[in-house]
């Protein structure tokens, strides 16, 4: 018995020494970085299955999480919706009227809407009195709280609503003819100001000057190729959606007694004519691996609405967030959530909260879920990072101006899996240098 006790003490001493060494190594890396002097660096590393702290630094400082927040807002939504949920756009008829119930489907295309109208015509419906649109699945707030006005023309910063279609983007096709004439055509009926010139490279950008005219798109820069396409977010989602339906009705030669768009909830006695369905699971992958803001925001609102039995809104999605994490034993005191994607500068979290939540995900979902869900090196936002560690590193990145972060899991050489959260903000160094510093921390954890 004494020998066993002594052996146990020896093992404990060895592992205690290893933890102390790892703590010292990580501390040296953090403390010796110029980022620690001029910026705010917060790090938390814990054993994923036990929650035991390996290393923490500024772990209780409230910082901006950027897109790492998606892990913690999407997890409650995934729990509510599950893998079997389908985004559904439904066409009804009642009293010889056509009703379109929008499903906030981030994958819906105008081609699907056009084909639906053709199918309805094929079912023998040649005329309707009126067309009604029901967007009650989520509310009409199309942007998150605290989003920046100068992001309105960033193609990764689309608005979102019940009327999502064509990724909520305008496509501008720029063509240079053999005669040297340059044209710019939009796939939506919006005026385009063409300021493009011929050049020795393709450098085209499209913007909306919302403070002057939000419906006018300016295309500028230079073009070398015969044809290039650029994108800019739609300003009026509902109008484009409704215009697509109305134009499809006209093209299908379906008669409308009153060819105007009206809004009204679908009546209870309405008959289903057709449904367009798209599965939810690809949206989860787009959120975790590609950091898709449209999917993150839409799913959170839909799930919040489903859980509350009401129209999806910011208030019921945030209630879902706090209820979920508190039910899982994760303290959310002081945590501020302003959107689902992490774009808002109003979001505030701690790395301690992040690793506590990651520990719960790890214990509840197990390793296969982590491998299937989080980005590995060579995928999505990690296409060019940590490529030697594929199969060992499963992370979500986050980036805003002067903000960078990582959150997820590292499977170390010692066989243990660690929950890791790194947030860095208020830096003036080039972003790639900050990413290199993050990579170094991950590499040190991997080599434990």
* Contiguous uncertain segments of 5+ residues: 1-18
Q: What is the radius of gyration?
A: 26 Å
Strand % is 25-35%
Q: Count of DSSP E strands?
A: 18
Distance N terminus to C terminus?
31 Å
What's the short version?
This protein has ten helices and 18 strands. With 448 residues, it is an alpha+beta fold.
Describe this structure in words.
It is a single chain. A hairpin with an 8-residue loop joins strand 10 and strand 11 (217-223). The protein is α+β, with helices and mostly antiparallel strands. The chain has 10 helices and 18 strands. The strands form 5 sheets. A 5-stranded antiparallel β-sheet has the order 2-1-18-17-16, with helices on both faces. A 5-stranded mixed β-sheet has the order 14-6-4-3-15. It has a 3-stranded antiparallel β-sheet with strand order 8-7-12, with no helix packed on it. Helix 3 (69-81) crosses helix 8 (314-327).
Per-chain topology:
Elements lengths: L1 H30 L2 H5 L1 E8 L5 E5 L11 H13 L4 E9 L2 E5 L8 H13 L4 E2 L2 E4 L34 E8 L5 E5 L5 E7 L4 E6 L8 E7 L3 E7 L3 H15 L3 E2 L4 E3 L7 E9 L1 H10 L2 H16 L5 H14 L23 H23 L19 E8 L2 E9 L5 E9 L5 H16 L2
Parallel strand pairs: 4-6, 5-13, 6-14, 9-11
Antiparallel strand pairs: 1-2, 1-18, 3-4, 3-15, 7-8, 7-12, 10-11, 16-17, 17-18
Helix pairs in contact: 1-10, 3-7, 3-8, 4-5, 6-7, 7-8
